[in-house]
Amino acid sequence: TQLLEQSPQFLSIQEGENLTVYCNSSSVFSSLQWYRQEPGEGPVLLVTVVTGGEVKKLKRLTFQFGDARKDSSLHITAAQPGDTGLYLCADSGNTGKLIFGQGTTLQVKP
Amino acid sequence: DVKVTQSSRYLVKRTGEKVFLECVQDMDHENMFWYRQDPGLGLRLIYFSYDVKMKEKGDIPEGYSVSREKKERFSLILESASTNQTSMYLCASSLIYNEQFFGPGTRLTVL
C-alpha cells in the first residue's frame, strides 16, 4: 500500500516569512496533486504535477516534483495570513482512487 | 466553476438514528466520492461511484451505504448512527480521477 508522508506536521510563522513543506511517497507517484483546506471548508485543488523535475508556479507558491517522482515540495514566498490552512498532497496511485497524506497545518500570524 | 454542495454544514444526531447526507454537483461529473476526515487520520475514502447506480467500497465502508439515482446526486447513509461516526464528511466529484472538487463538508456529531 502506498504511503504519503508530509512534513512538517505543523508550522507557525510570521507574515512575510518563506516556508517549504514536503511530501514523500513510498512508491513512484502516478500524478501528484496539492490541495489547500481552509478551516471549516473542503480542500481546494491548487495544482497537478505529472512529469519528474516539473516546476509549477501559482503566484507566491512554487511546486516542485522530484526527478524520481517520489517526492514533492511546496514553497511559499512571503507568506500571508490568507495562506493559513491545511496543505494536503495526494496521488491517484494505480487504482484511480486518491491517496492523501496527513497534511501540513500552516498558521501565518499577522 | 465547479460547484459541489452538501445539504448541511452542521448536523447533530442521536445514537441509532438513520442519517442522510446529500451531495450535489453541477458539472456533469461521472465520478463522486465520500470521505471522512478525522484529526490525525487524514481523509479516508468511504465509498465512491463512477456512474449512476454504480458504487464501489472505499477503505472504510463499514456502517455506511450510498445511493446514486441521478448523475448529479450522491447520498451517504448511516443506517444506525454511532458515536464513532462523529466526524467531518466531505463529498467530492471529478471528471477524471486525479482532480477532485470538494464540497464544504458536513460536520456530524452523534450523541
Mean pLDDT of chain A: 92
- Which runs of chain B of at least 5 residues are low in confidence (pLDDT < 50)? none
Rounded average pLDDT of chain B? 93
The total strand number of chain A stands at 11
Intertermini distance of chain A: 40 Å
Helix-residue proportion of chain A? under 10%
Order of helices and strands of chain B: EEEEEEEEEEE
Intertermini distance of chain B: 37 Å
* SS element count, helices of chain B: 0
Task: Tell me, briefly, the overall form of chain B.
Answer: globular
Principal-axes geometry of chain A comes out as globular
Task: Please give a handful of descriptors for the protein shown.
heterodimer; A: about 110 residues; 6-stranded mixed sheet; 5-stranded antiparallel sheet; B: about 110 residues; mainly beta; 11 strands
Question: Would you kindly provide a written description of the structure presented here, covering whatever features stand out?
Answer:
The complex is a heterodimer of chains A (110) and B (111). By secondary structure, chain A is mainly β. Helices cover 0% and strands 53% of the residues of chain A. Chain A has strands spanning 4-7, 10-14, 19-25, 32-37, 44-49, 55-58, 61-65, 71-76, 85-91, 99-100, 104-109. In chain A, 35% of the residues are buried. Chain B is an all-beta fold. Chain B is 0% helix and 54% strand. Chain B is built from no helices and eleven strands. Chain B has strands spanning 4-6, 10-13, 19-25, 31-38, 42-49, 56-57, 64-70, 73-78, 87-94, 101-102, 106-110. In chain B, strand 5 and strand 6 form a beta hairpin. The radius of gyration of chain B is 13 Å and the shape is globular. Chain B starts with a strand and ends with a strand. In chain B, 36% of the residues are buried. The interface between A and B is medium-sized, with 20 and 22 residues.
